[in-house]
């Protein structure tokens, strides 16, 4: 059947929209990568300090700043507006430093101490890293968007503990390609978050490996949970994999310290709730993981990304009618 005039017009509009979006992505990537190339010419500490100061001025002008403040007010009803603004300012500084550290990551970790570890990173729980290395078994290491969370698989590898990390690529394909190249050079095995990624994680665990997961983002049609006492949707993937392989789950986090230094912490395994039949309870286990992350965020609220719409409830429900 020949296409009608409205069909041809609609297809042309779709092609034009996609072309404009591609051009927009290309332009944004060129500008961003160009600025990062200029930044690379500066000393690392000076450049990161500059980004921090700039973000604290520019961040409050962004629409996401209003989202951050709304989330902070709901999470901390007893704090004053000045206190909430200070947390939001710290958040923007942290996010800017995180972006800049992609440029300077090699420089930040190249200086090593007497144990061959990055001198700028202190490790809490080194004995656990060594125990996991010396007693191979499938395990899941989870973390949150705190400090520079990209350092976790790097430090684990320093202890001879390779971790296959699940990551979400940027929507911009040009930035995603550049970021992937940068990550692969330092972080090892990476698994892109897309349909089928759960099977890739399962294969790693089936082979007795370790996987790393970020667990503090919203998840459409996810498990109903709470975070800071507010309803939200959370990914059940960690709990399902832990139940399938009956494997240990360890909390790991990164805290940003003064002087462009970091603290990496790994804890003992988390005891996940189980059903009467002895299997891991998916919903209760997911809530347990949320509770661990909430403790972390409360300890360092300025290092978490409050502009994320963590409490937005969304579903893939079908629309009725046309």
UniProtKB/TrEMBL annotation:
GO molecular function: acyltransferase activity
GO BP annotations listed: glycolipid biosynthetic process
Pfam families the record matches: Lip_A_acyltrans
Record keywords, A-Z: Acyltransferase, Cell inner membrane, Cell membrane, Membrane, Transferase
GO CC annotations on file: plasma membrane
Coiled-coil parts of chain: none
Subcellular compartments: Cell inner membrane
This protein's name: Lipid A biosynthesis lauroyl acyltransferase
Organism this protein belongs to: Nitratireductor arenosus
